[in-house]
Amino acid sequence: MLLEVRAVSKHFGGIRALEEVTFSVKQGMILSIIGPNGAGKTTLFNCLTGFMKPTRGSIIFSGSNISRLPADRINRLGISRTFQNIRLFKSMSVLENVLVAQHARIRSGLLPIIAHMPSFLNEEASVRQTAYEYLAFIGLESFAEQGAGNLPYGAQRRLEIARALASEPQLILLDEPSAGMNPLETDEMMTTIRKMQELGKTIILIEHDMKFVMGISDRIVVLDHGVKIAEGPPHEVRNNPLVIEAYLGKETH
Amino acid sequence: MNGFFIKRMPKAVIISLWSALLFLPFKGLQAAGLLFLFLFLALLVITVASRLSGPLFRTAEVIRKNAAGLIPGDSRYLLLLILPALTLPLFFRNYILDVAVLAGIYIILALALNVVVGFTGLLNLGFVAYYAIGAYSFALLNTRLGLGFWSALPLSVIITTAAGLVFAAPALRLKGDYLALVTLGFGEIVRITLNNWDSFTKGPNGISGIDPPSFFGITLAALSSFYYLVLFFVVLAVIVIRRVHASKIGRAWIALREDEIAASAMGIRSIRYKLYAVSFGAFWAGLAGCLFAAKMRFISPESFTFMESVLILSMVILGGLGSIAGVIIGAVILVALPEALRDIQMYRMLALGAGVVLLMIFRPQGLFGGSSASRS
After folding, report:
1. Whether B9 and B86 share a structural domain
2. What's the CA gap between A76 and A105, in Å, rounded?
3. Hey, which end of chain B has fewer CB within 10 Å, N or C?
4. pLDDT at B41 over 90
5. pTM for the structure as a whole
6. Inter-chain contact B375–A49, Cβ cutoff 8 Å?
């Protein structure tokens, strides 16, 4: 197992945003987390990436407990994420956004940087090369020198994914990757996520578009009011009465 | 063009009317009327100029891009900066050189503050503290221990950098306005300590008899040689800061300014890189302090007041947060302007204040800042 979430709870005062959530993710799979608004999906993402500390429970990533680690440390261990409300470095160029994500893998210290030593220059050139490759992967290489804030909405979402990929994680968390996209862009996004899976990445995504979720997921976890109410492959989850109830409400007689 | 004027006219009228009304109780109706007329005309000229400057800027950009291919990398900016600067002592009297030396010291200070405020987005209202620590370390090492310029300088810079680290470590847990207030307090603490610690710093009397720098046994007492010394450090500061800015460290700083949450999601240790920024800024501010002490040969706490912090911050904001070239020009303007306006001394601060207000209305990102720097 690449990731094991063991009985994770997150309480905000009296509000139980997550209650004893347990599931695990195998290497190379695409897992979707679905649930109505306020089900605790983004809270779960925040716990997984170190932006919130779970009240109880543990998160085991490749064998070590990461539930108390800070966000930057978790990223360097191999988990990267995108944000529901896009968080790009807006005044930086598209290329620089991807370069920032490669931060942890640049070794040159202050002295090589100031002296422009060959080791620094070579490393910088190779990092730029890699950044271009990630931009090409996501189809943004022609925008490399543009300001990230000036990109159209769909391209900004894709840039966030390129940036997440560039920190070379094993596990990528995508928070609503197709939100606000038109059907054509949504299809492209599905293709991109499959390509990421082929690269060997493990992917967890939060998504509201059911066609998208059913079409791409290997497994689905359903949350409602912070509790996991179902888990399984798409065809199972689709017909689960608890899931239908959570989304549509209980039938009244 | 007509529609453009109708749109801008009310704004110009309101601004000038408002300024004139503020002025009215102090100088009477006639002066207020004059100010209104003057401001209104100035605003009209500015609006027309800004209307025309768009295409002009674009042309300049095209020229710059084409010229970029001819001269490679760093050197193209440095050449622009150095050539006229090198020849300055040949043409000008001591007075101009004196102003130029002061401008050089302020350029280093403003570049240093720009690393903290412009790149990393940490508002610092007490930056003069590092300047003071650098100057006092240098003066004390020189007068008490008899260390020469070239041994006192690195030691003082190390002391200042360490002070930067020590004071920033607890303060960086705060953000935004709170951090600004703590830095303001820090600036005052340093000044008041220097003022009251009579036995060590000689208090308000200051420290006199600081040795001028020497170079291989030759004393650089002449203004022109000191000018070249300052110029050397300015060029050094520009090169080093530019290179750090264009590295992973600079990118981490800007990422932290733009979005700290996203930056830490990308693996950047936010506290560590903020500490880097503050101590890197303190390093250069300490260096500027040494140069100031060696130039004046006398320092006292009076040179390191809150107004000094404000002045350095104004240089950074005037030039444009985050832009190295802009900050240099901002520093030169704010050092040269008061000298140029010496004849109308009474209205100097008034003009400066009006200038800042106009700047904030028409170019909030500073003279040379990118369009996005002001958003952060």
Report:
1. no
2. 9
3. N
4. no
5. 0.85
6. no
Which residue in the set A72, A80, A113 is minimally distant from B247, CB to CB? A113
Q: What is the pLDDT of residues A128-147, one digit of tens each?
A: 999 999 999 999 989 988 89
- Do the strands A30-34 and A202-206 form a parallel or antiparallel pair, or are they unpaired? parallel
Burial status of residue A9 (CB atoms within 10 A of its CB: 0-12, 13-18, 19 or more): middle
User: Is B52 exposed, middle or buried (CB count within 10 Å of its CB: 0-12, 13-18, 19+)?
Assistant: exposed
A253 and A185 fall within a common domain: yes
**Which structural domain, as residue segments, surrounds residue B97?**
74-208+237-375
Residues sharing a CB contact under 8 Å with residue B174, sequence separation 6 or more, in sequence order: B182
Q: How many domains does chain A have?
A: 2
State the total domains in chain B: 2
Burial state string for A166-178 with b = 16 or more CB within 10 A and e = fewer than 16: bbbbbbbbbbbbb
Query: How confident is the model at residue A171, as a pLDDT?
Result: 95
Exposed, middle or buried by CB within 10 Å (0-12, 13-18, 19+), for B239?
middle
Q: Which value does ipTM take for this structure? A: 0.91
Cβ separation of A113 and B262 shorter than 8 Å? no
Domain that holds residue A100: 90-168
Q: From residue B349, how far is each of B15, B155, B346, B361 by CA, in Å?
A: 19, 37, 7, 18
Most A CBs within 10 Å: which of B161, B173, B248, as the mutation test of the A interface?
Answer: B248
B293 and B337 in a single domain? The answer is yes
- A163 touches B at CB < 8 Å: yes
For residues A203 and A235, state if they share a domain: yes
Dig out the tokens for A139 from the structure. 């189809």
**Of B249, B266, B375, which has the smallest distance from its Cβ to A113's Cβ?**
B249
- Residue A83 in any domain: the answer is no
Could you say which of A168, A185, A200 is where a domain stops? A168
* Cα–Cα distance, A58 to A147 (Å, whole number): 40
Residue A96's closest chain B neighbor by CA?
B251
In DSSP terms, which residues pair with A8 in a beta bridge? A21
pLDDT single digits (tens) A140-169 = 989 988 899 999 998 999 999 999 999 999
